[in-house]
Amino acid sequence: MKARLQRVIGYLTATVAVLLGWAAISLIIDNPALPLPTTAVQQFIALFPEMLPHIGISFYRIVISMVLGTIAGTILGLIIGRSTKLDAVGAPLLYVLYPVPKIVFVPVLMVLLGLGNAPAIVLISTVIFFQTVVTARAAAKSISPDLVASVRSLGASKLDVARHVVFPSALPSIFTALRISAGTAVAVLFVVESIAGNTGVGFYIVNAWGRIDYATMFAGIIAMALMGVFLYEVINFVENRLVPWAPKPE
Amino acid sequence: MSITTKQTSRPTKCRAAIELHDVSLCYKTAQKETLAIDGLSLMVEQGEPIAIIGASGCGKTSLLNLIAGLRKPTTGTVSVKGESVVGPRKQTSLILQDYGLLPWKTVLDNAALGLSIQKIPRKTARKKAMEALRVVGIEDFATSYPRELSGGMRQRLAMARAMALETDIMLMDEPLSALDALTREELQNVLLDLWQSESYAQILVTHSIEEAVLLGRRIVLMTPRPGKIRTIIDNPEMGTREYRQSAIFHERCTHLRELLLGDK
Q1: Is the pLDDT confidence value at A117 over 50?
Q2: Which residue among A160, A169, A171 places its CB closest to the CB of B117?
Q3: Cβ density class B214-237: b for 16+ within 10 Å, e for less
Q4: Which of B104, B117, B161 sits opposite A156 (nearest CB)?
Q5: Where are the alpha helices (DSSP H) in chain B?
Q6: Does a structural domain hold residue B162?
């Protein structure tokens, strides 16, 4: 309970610090492109009902993509991490594809999948997938062979070992990957929405920008930032539930 | 004691708990072949405690893996309770140096792990596991996680996991080597008591001369690479905590030390 209170206080302090910094910069550069936080927040509150459908669709895209990318990446990463044979094929493939910036495929995906949810979901899940698969593979490789031997000596099948040893031991790394990918996911989402289609917070921001309506643009930016924070907190919450045994990072 | 009741209730062909006949084991990696064990034969009786001692890399761990069914011998036969070993067996317990505890499971779930792998209903498994925790004296920590336990308590937990499975073959690979001297002595007594009350056959691999003499009715000395039996020392007087203070104990430790020093 005390830890939770500390967390809330931490968030509040950080928010105040960010708003103060923002206000200071805004006053110094004195340019309509960077309105005062008070103006932006007022606009955010005023336009919230209008933004809600956009927030909803952006959220839908990001959550679906994170779930799909994480599940696929975890399963594949753990499998190739545990199998020397598959790793011999999978690892080089992974390391060739991993550094390729997936975002450059937006035009291709738009041509192939249209302007709806599909290009966003495909792209974000792919980005998340690569981050997770690399992490999961490393986690699976670092499992102590003694631990596996002990559990096997109890009569465990490969599936038992996967369930009792491989998966739980990789969970903390998976959550770290998820936390990192939450930020990436929001960034990729913005890029996709700003290029393709006419829905989502990304579109909303770029659309306001096109109308030179900076206050509205910043209302959208606040919405996007809040989405990021919310995602991060959801991940922390789930992690606390699923990984109560690990020493807490913060 | 229960040793005798066990023997009368079982057919006589199973007198040997563990039988290794002319066993050799060769590891093949891409670079080279290593002969870990070469022509080793050993018979362990029901309820007999054996200690194995020898330099690092003499194939002691490989030997335990063979008996536990985690590896197959390159040549020769390994049988447990009269049956050829083809894979891990329910009532054979293997305790490795790091105890093989799962950090993500509570103490109780760790103790119940073997049972849950064997698809025993959760309720029964937990009951048996709790009973085993009581036997080793850590039932108050049932809901803790292994990282919250001391080294000695982790060792007890590893023992409890074996107890819950009603183990009849206990294989231990330097189980106490990570403990400080006093805890180690305390745990040696725990091992002794458990062996007395549960009467399983036991193979204890150790680097400690005192531990071998305290816990082995026969002490097997192995030669380094490839692992072979160099000699076996009979130690029939073992079996009580007080043995540690006796003159014979010290005499035997000295003898063993001389033999080991002769290796170098």
Answers
A1: yes
A2: A160
A3: bbbbbbbbbbebbbbbbeebebee
A4: B117
A5: 2-9, 60-68, 107-111, 113-117, 122-136, 151-164, 181-198, 209-215, 247-262
A6: yes
State the total domains in chain B: 1
Residue of chain A nearest B106, judged by CA positions: A245
Is the CB of residue B259 less than 8 Å away from at least one CB of chain A?
no
Query: What is the least distance, in Å, from the CA of A108 to any CA of chain B?
Result: 44
Q: Which of B88, B98, B147 sits opposite A153 (nearest CB)?
A: B88
Q: What is the pLDDT averaged over residues A77-87?
A: 91
Q: How far is B258 from chain A (nearest CA, A)?
A: 32
Closest CA to A227 of A68, A69, A59: A59
Say how many CB pairs under 8 Å bridge A and B.
72
User: For residue B58, what are its two tokens?
Assistant: 């003499």
Residue pair A193/A202 in contact (Cβ under 8 Å)? The answer is yes
Distance CA A140, CA A138 (A): 5
Q: Does any CB of chain A come closer than 8 Å to the CB of residue B90?
A: yes
Radius of gyration of chain A (CA): 21
- The segments of chain B whose pLDDT lies below 70 read 1-15, 57, 263-264
Instruction: Give residue for tokens 């929405």.
Output: A193
Please name each of the domains of chain A with its CATH number.
44-242 (1.10.3720.10)
pLDDT at A202: 92
- CA atoms in the 13 A half-sphere facing the CB of B192: 20
Our CA-based measurement puts residue B94 at a distance from the nearest CA of chain A, in whole angstroms, of 6
Minimum distance, in Å, between the CA of residue B178 and any CA atom of chain A: 15
ipTM over 0.90: no
A151, A155, A160 ranked by CB distance to B100: nearest: A151
Q: Is residue B197 part of a domain?
A: yes
| Helix axes B151-164 and B181-198, enclosed angle (nearest 10) | 10
Contact B147 A168 (CB under 8 A): no
Does residue B239 form part of some domain?
no
**How is residue A248 annotated by DSSP?**
P
In a domain, B170, yes or no: yes
Query: Taken in order A72, A73, A79, A84, is the CA torsion positive or negative?
Result: positive
Q: Which of residues 98-117 of B touch A (CB under 8 A)?
A: 98-100, 102-106, 113-114, 117
Asked if A81 and A136 count as a contact pair (C-beta separation under 8 A), the reply is: yes
CATH number of the domain that residue B194 is part of? 3.40.50.300
Contacts of A160 in chain B (CB under 8 A): 117
Q: How far is CA B257 from CA A211, B253, B264, in A?
A: 89, 6, 11
Contact A144/B at CB under 8 A = yes
Contact A146 B100 (CB under 8 A): yes
What's this model's pTM, rounded to 2 decimal places? 0.79
Contact B146, B96 (CB under 8 A): no
